[in-house]
Amino acid sequence: MPAPADPRHAFGGVPLDHWSIPIQDAQLLAGQPPGTFSHSPVIGPATTLRRIGYRDYVHPSDVTFREFLIGFVVEQFGGLEWLQREFPLPIAERHVVSGWYSRTVASINEAQRVAQASPGDEIRIPASGYMSELLALAYDLALLIDRHCLPVPLLERLRVRTEYQGARFEMAVAAISVRAGFRVNFIKDTTKTGPEFIAEDPITATSFGVEAKSRHREGVLHRPGQLDPKKAARADVDRLITEALAKDRRGLPYVVMIDVNAPIEPGKTSLEQAWFVDAWRKLGPHSN
Questions:
Q1: Contact 111, 48 (CB under 8 A)
Q2: Closest residue by Cα to residue 197 from 136, 258, 256
Q3: Are 75 and 64 spatial neighbours (Cβ–Cβ below 8 Å)?
Q4: What is the pLDDT of residues 176-195, one digit of tens each?
């Protein structure tokens, strides 16, 4: 779908580059449960204040949390300047996130047109796959930044097309751990092999290493070539398992998370999926 003519005005005339105005001496609420943001938003009659990490953001009160997240993720990738560099490129050369953004904004604009909505009106839009991917990415980014556990190198890898898939899965696993109530500490020493991060249970003080691996598929997420559906249906993760188990576990319990990146077979349960059968068979030699 085409990109909006002016990406600064994607949602009800709210300029994208005005969504992140730092303000001082904010009165914010704390004490949120694990897995949520550290501070509750302060909602006024005209503006809403949100704190993500060490930064405060203000936007009109009629901008929803999902709309805020979309602006937030664009900011993390480079903001308006990044979009202006991306939009002229052929779709095959663009970063997948800018493509998700364009399609999401186009869906919102079309829904507003069909509903003949005025600024501030509430409209409902069915969540598409690309919209769900964009919002999931934005939420994970905001959560990890809020908890001060997103390494700068990982954020930089997200911005690189060829690095995106692996970095996104590492970030997803870290965000899942945070939502489960664990403290996440990424390993800074990259001179030795080891897990991506150490997760700690703040209640029991138990720690364990977490390794994240993602299976790349031809024609998927910036990978060259064409997707082979039959090949993609298999897990084909034995190399990833071997590599993960060969790393230095640092004397800790060890959890390996693998993204099989395989299509879902309609009409089959999870245990009947071809990728699950294949993965289970290949896990056999490592079960002890």
A1: no
A2: 256
A3: no
A4: 999 999 999 998 877 778 89
